[in-house]
Amino acid sequence: MHAAHDVIECILSGIMSVKGKKVLHMDRNPYYGAESASITPLEDLYKRFNLPGNPPESMGKGRDWNVDLVPKFLMANGQLVRMLLITQVTRYLDFKVIEGSYVYKGGKIFKVPSTETEALSSSLMGIFEKRRFRNFLIFVANFDENDPKTLEGIDPHKTSMRSIFQKFKLGQDVIDFTGHSLALYRTDDYLDLPCNEAINRIKLYSESLARYGKSPYLYPLYGLGELPQGFARLSAIYGGTYMLNKPIEEIIVENGKVVGVKSEGEIARCKQLICDPSYFKDRTKKIGQVIRVICVLSHPIQNTGDINSCQIIIPQNQVSRKHDIYVCMISFAHNVAAQGKYIAIASTTVETDNPEKEIKPALDLLEPIDQKFVSISDLLVPTDSGTDSQIFLSRSYDATTHFETTCDDIKNIYQRMTGTEFDFTEMERKQQDIFGDAAE
């Protein structure tokens, strides 16, 4: 079994190694992480984006930089953290808590109120709305679909989320930040679906927040490139083999089934193949594009109280769009930038033929910007399940700034490969909290 070396593929190979499969990893790149790599030194980022010359001296040492190409945070109680705990990859990683979560309203940013106390002091809402929102949060916290007493007469599988918001008489602005900054939906389609999923998402946010207090998000020191390396080590412990810088010349298919991969004239045989969609244009379809703009700043983002890391969500209604715009900021405090420097990455799903104009509301929040790196990537999804060919493709990374959708993809591939659902409890070993100093 072979895989191109993305975070998704690395996690799967780690899980498969633990389950006793023999895993070989090949990557055409000289670094870990493929599309989701962290690029170091800074000179390499300039080359990658075809910028002339070298970074200015004001940017500090090139080696001090580790810049994620696809920015994402981990939810403290989310699926990826559970996968890290189950596989004990946490031994190789150090995390820091992201210091704040913000939402955009009327051209300004506000801290996301996610506890009953914060709701009452938030300037996002008027005094009566605060009380209603607090009642809504109490309802969500007590919500248990198996206990009718907590449901207040609603049917979690039939009542829509729109009806729940109406029940608590919540206005459009509150619905915007609840759906997009707490439940982390990218569009408003969820409003007319049964409410149980949205309520459970808000619970996940609140429980993740309760774990460390500042925000529900964690981020690894030295960047996301540490994640695939952690899973690479895990795989190696269980006998997995790694080959970086190996050009993939041909994927060999016989009678419709994958049998091997050819690299530098040699064939490595396999029964199953996992890879990212860029290796198989003929087995994927494009469903859209994502624009990402990496911005180097010499200052924290305004109106955040000068914190070293944060997430900002711009709900689509606020900027007359169909998709949200995301900003995530990290800094020298995470060993990913030179002293006194910040990296803010804005991303959204492309809707027009002028993507840079679409992302302007986010860039306006970041001014002045020292240097921008703009990329537009196709969103590719596999056109078949892979069960016949035994070639299993992941989806491209979406515009979200958390790993929950990525984990859904991992579980989906696992199910296609093994024919069984990914079961956390089955894989859960002795769980202790190994995040150690994350909260400090």
UniProtKB/TrEMBL annotation:
One of its GO terms (cellular component) is Golgi apparatus. Its main location: cytoplasm. InterPro entries: FAD/NAD-bd_sf (IPR036188), GDP_dissociation_inhibitor (IPR018203), RabGDI (IPR000806). Coiled coil: none annotated. It is found in: Cytoplasm; Golgi apparatus, trans-Golgi network; Membrane. GO terms for biological process: protein transport; small GTPase-mediated signal transduction; vesicle-mediated transport. Keywords: Acetylation, Cytoplasm, Golgi apparatus, GTPase activation, Membrane, Phosphoprotein. Belongs to the Rab GDI family. GDP-dissociation inhibitor preventing the GDP to GTP exchange of most Rab proteins. By keeping these small GTPases in their inactive GDP-bound form regulates intracellular membrane trafficking. Negatively regulates protein transport to the cilium and ciliogenesis through the inhibition of RAB8A. This is Rab GDP dissociation inhibitor. The lineage of its organism: Eukaryota, Metazoa, Chordata, Craniata, Vertebrata. The gene is gdi2.
